[in-house]
Amino acid sequence: MRALFGRVLLLFVGLVRWPLRAWVRPRVTPTDLKELALDDQQRICYVLAGTGLSDWLALEMAVAAHGLPRPHPVRHRLPADDRAVVLALPEAAGRGRAVWQRMIQQGMDDPASGIQIVPVSIFWGQNPVKETSLFRILFADTERPGRLRKLLIILAQGRNTLLHFGQPLDYGAFAGRDVAPEVAVRKLSRVLRVHFRRQRAATLGPTLSHRGQVINSVLADPEVRAVIERTARAENVSVAAIRARARSCADEIAADYSNIAIGFMLRVLSWLWHRIYDGVEVAHLQRLRDTAHDASLVYLPSHRSHMDYLLVSYILYQEGFALPQIAAGINLDFWPVGGLLRRCGAFYLRRSFRGDKLYTAVFRSYVDVLIGRGQPMKFYPEGGRSRTGRLLPPKTGMLAMVAGGLLHHPDRPVALVPVYIGYDRVMEVNSYFEELSGTRPKKGESVRGLLRSSRKVLSRKYGRAHIAFGEPLRLDQWADRHRPGWRRELPAVPGPSRPDWLAGFVDDVAETVMVRINAAASLNAAGLVSLILLGSPQKAVAEHELIHGVEALLALARACPYSPDVRLPSADGAALLAEAEPLVRLQRHPHAWGDVLTLAERDAVLLTYTRNNVMHLFALPSLLANFFAHAETCSRAGVLRDAEALYPLLASELFLRWPADGVASALEAALDGMLTVGLLTEDEHSGDLRRPAVGTREFAALIGLARIMRETLERYGMTAVLLANSLDSGHIERGAFERQCQLMAERMAILTGRNSPEFFDLRLFRNHLQTLKRDGLLTGNGGSLRIDPRMRTLAEHALQLLGPDIRQTILHLTSQPTAERGAQEPASS
Predict the structure, then answer these.
(1) What fold characterizes domain 257-493?
(2) Is the pTM value of this prediction over 0.85?
(3) What PANTHER family would the database entry show (predicted)?
(4) Rounded to whole angstroms, how far apart are CA atoms 459 and 363?
C-alpha cells in the first residue's frame, strides 16, 4: 500500500512539475552560491519555511540550475551522499518530527556523518506591497496561504520568484550526545524560525503604508504641530493655512511606491547595465546580509555619477534585499523622471532649507517616520557628486536627522552602511572638467539635457562598475561606546530639542562613515594605469615600463594592504594594461625598442578623476617615497617622525583610516612593505634606509610611487609656507587667506605647465585650514585665526619633500609682498 501511494505521489509530482517549470523563473541569492562555502564531503538538508509542494519544486529547479545536490523525490528520507533531503519547518512540531529526530539521532550515533542544514527562504514576489491594497489581498506572498490563493500567487508572481539560501547551520551544535533528540529538534526549530522571520524582513522590508497615511503621520507629529502653531502666530495667519503649507511640503517630499514602476525600472536597468558596462562587481554582501537580520539599514554611498541612484537599488534588489527609500535632490524632480523615481522609492529634499523651520520640521518628521517603521533608506553623505574623484567632506544634515531618530526610537536598531561606488570610467567626467575649469557653469537637470546626454551615454562602453558594502556602523552600539549612559539622558516625552552632545556625535559618525567608504575601495586596471601615467612628467611611458610599474604597485598593495576590505585585481600587468587601454584612451606609438604609450592633454586631465578614486590606497607609501625622491639615504626614525607630522593633512583630505595618534604602526608597516618589494633597502649596521640605484626598474617604481602624492604635498607646502610667513603678524583673515592660496596655486600651475583644475580647488585649501585648526596649529573663531609658532617647523617638513625647482617656485612666490601678489592676481576662475 505504501509503495502504491509512493508511485501515485511521484506521478502527481511529475504532472505538477512540468507546468511549474514552464512558468516559474526562480532567482537565487546569493547570486554566487560560493558564499555559502558548502562542504562537498558533507550531506545537505534543505529546510523550507512552508510545506507547499510548489516551494519544494521551486527549490528543486533552483538547485538543479546551480549544481547543488538535488533532493529526494519523496519526503521522510535521510540525506545521502548523492541526494539531499528537504524538510519543512512546520513538520518539526507535527507529523514529520520523526524525520527531524532521526536526523539528530544519526548525528549522535555517528558524529562523522556530517549534515549541513541549509535554510532556504522562498518569496513568491519581491515587490513591496501596501497595507490594504487589493494586490496584497489576492497576489502578495504570505507565510501560510490557502491552496487557491497560492495558485493565484504563483500565476501572478511565478516570474518574480526569489530563493534565498542561508548560511549552513552548525549541525554539531544541535546533535550533542548530552541532548535528547526531541530537545535538539526544538532548539533547531527555534533558531530556524528566527532566521526565516529575519530573512523575510530583510528581503521584503516593512509593509508599506499608503502615501496619504505617511503624510498624515508626519502632520500629526507633535513637533510639526508645534511648528505650525508658532509659524501661524508669527505670520498672523490661520493655523489651517500653515497646515496646508505643511501638507504641501510633505507632498513634495514623500515617495509613492508603485510595483508597476519598479518592475519597469528593473527591466530597463537590466538592459542598461549590459549596454554600457561590461559587468558590475559586488563585494562584502555576506556581511550586509548578517547586518540586515539585526537592524534597519541606512545606505550611505559615495556619489560620483547619476548612475549611483540606480546602481545600488538594482544590486540590492538582485541580491534579495528590501528596496530602500532614496533621498534625491529636488533638481531631479522634473517630468517624466521625477515621478518615475518617486514611484521607485525616491523622496525629494531641497538643496537648502536653512531658515525654513516649517519645511525642516516636516522633513525631519518624514525621516523619523521611516526610521520608526524600519524602512531602509539611502542618501549621499557628500550631498552632491564629486567633481574631482575624491570623497567630499560630509554634509551632516540628513545624518543628524537619522541620529535624531535614534533618540525617538532607541529600541529600533539602525545600521549605517558605507558603500563604495567606483567606475572604470565615469560618464560625466567631461562635464566635471569643464565645471572645474570654469569653461561651463553647472547646469540644471532637464528633459532636453537628459535626451542629449543619453545619446552619448548609450553609444559608449564604460568598463565595469564596482560596488562594495563597507563595515556597517550600528548607531546604538556606537553611542553606547562613545556616549555611555545616553539612554538615561533621553527625555520622557520626545521633543524638538536635541542634546548638546549630538552635534559632535554626528560629526564623528560622519567622519567614520567616509573613512569606511574609502576602506572598501576597489583597485581596478584603469586606476592602476592612471597612477603610473599621471606620475610620468610627460604623460608618456614605454609599454614594458608601464607594465612593470603596475605590477610593482600591485605587489606593494599586497605587501602592505590598505585595509582588509580593499579588493585587488588578480590579473598580471600585461592583462591589466590591455583592459585599461581603451578605457583611458591611451595613444600607442610604435618604436623599434618597444611601443610608447601616451595620453592627449585633455585625456590626461580627465584621467585624474580615475586616479583620485584610488590614490588614497597608496597615500602612506607615497608619502614615505617622497623622502627618497631627492635623497639617497634617510634614517628610519627621521622618516617616520616627519611623516607622522604631515599625516594629519593627508588623513583629512583623503579620509585615511588611521587616527593621527595611531598611524606610527601603519607607517612602519608601509616601510616594511616597501622593503619587501625592493623599493627600499636597509643598512644592516646603521639601520638607515637607501633607495635603489638610479636607472633601475625599482628606482623608477619608487619615483612613480612618490609622484602619486606630489601635487598634494605641494599644496601643503604652499599653505604651510604662507602661514609661516604670516607669523610676524600673528594672525590671518580666513576667507582672504583661502583665496590667496588658491591664486598662488593657479599661478604655480601656469609656471609649472600643469593643466589640472583640481590643483587649485578652493575647497582643498579650506579643508587644510580646518585640519590645522583641529590640530591646534591655528586657533580662533570666526574669520580671524591666530597662527601657532609650530607652523614654521611644519613648513620645513613639507618643503624638504619637494624638488629644488618646486621648492624654489614656492619660496619665490611666497616671498613677494602681499600687495605685489595682489597686483599680479590673475582673473578669477
Answers:
(1) Glycerol-3-phosphate (1)-acyltransferase (3.40.1130)
(2) yes
(3) DIHYDROXYACETONE PHOSPHATE ACYLTRANSFERASE (PTHR12563:SF17), GLYCEROL-3-PHOSPHATE ACYLTRANSFERASE (PTHR12563)
(4) 39
